[in-house]
Design goal:
- It is a single chain.
- The chain starts with a strand and ends with a strand.
- The relative contact order is 0.18.
- It is built from three helices and five strands.
- α1 (25-39) runs parallel beside α2 (57-71).
- It has helices spanning 25-39, 57-71, 83-91; strands at residues 2-7, 12-20, 43-54, 75-81, 100-102.
- β1 (2-7) and β2 (12-20) form a beta hairpin.
- Helices cover 37% and strands 35% of the residues.
- It has 105 residues and is of the alpha/beta class.
Length: 105
């Protein structure tokens, strides 16, 4: 699992690649928090297009990032969510609290 920060013209973007499971979640959360501390974007996109798998551990990551962005008054959205991860997030009700778009095939 890798987490990379990309600066876009209107926002920051965290790009996730690999498997986001219970083995990778702790490191991904630490890396994401460090990148957010370094860059402090007012608006953030989580780009999940590179995920090959996500279990419920990904929910903790999303909710932690959401709390950080709320704390600083920033905006958050999730984009390019692959099918399997999209089903996990929808079943947990995430689209009700975080704007989210599925990955187009």
């Amino acid at each position: 699992m890798t987490v990379e920060y990309i600066t876009r013209t209107d926002c920051g973007c965290l790009l996730f690649t690999g498997e986001l499971d219970h083995h990778a979640a702790s490191a991904a959360i630490r890396r994401s928090c460090a990148l957010l501390d370094d860059h402090q974007p007012g608006s953030l996109i989580l780009d999940l297009s590179g995920l090959t798998f996500m279990d419920s551990s990904g929910l903790a990551l999303l909710m932690g990032i959401r709390r950080r962005m709320q704390y600083i008054g920033g905006k958050l959205r999730v984009e390019n969510v692959p099918g399997q991860a999209y089903r996990v997030l929808v079943s947990a009700g995430i689209p009700k609290i975080i704007p989210m778009t599925p990955k187009e095939n």
